[in-house]
Amino acid sequence: MAELRVQIDRLDRQLIALLAERAGYIDRAAQLKPAEGLPARIGARVNEVKANVRAEAVAKGLDPDLAEGVWSQLIDWSIAREEKTLGRDEQE
Fold first, then answer.
1. Does the N terminus or the C terminus of the chain have fewer Cβ atoms within 10 A?
2. Which of 39, 47, 19, 30 is nearest to 82 (CA)?
């Protein structure tokens, strides 16, 4: 069990590093969107990301509902982060 926990902790650190990297890209998107006239939330992109996540989860043998739930929270957080820069405006 101890070695298993070490491996889980290692993966958790890697996941945090990847999420931090993703947040950096979210910040960059918030800088670029005004020049393109884009809002923080773009409904079609949200749907695309969720579909991609579900497909990848299925391909990897992970419950797609779990993956989509995690990503839904991540997407909501990301949009809120962008809205601090861009303001609230929605494009479907």
1. N
2. 30
Extract the annotated binding site. Answer: 5, 22, 33, 82
Backbone angles phi, psi at 18, to 5 degrees: -70, -40
3-class secondary-structure state, position 48: helix
Domain 2-91 is found in CATH 3.40.30.10: no
DSSP state of 42: E
Q: What is the pTM of this model?
A: 0.86
* Category of 61 on φ-ψ map: left (φ > 0), alpha (ψ -120 to 50) or beta: left
CB atoms within 10 A of CB 21: 9
Q: Please state the rounded mean pLDDT for residues 63-92.
A: 88
- Annotated binding site for substrate, which residues? 5, 22, 33, 82
Q: Where are the domains of the chain?
A: 2-91
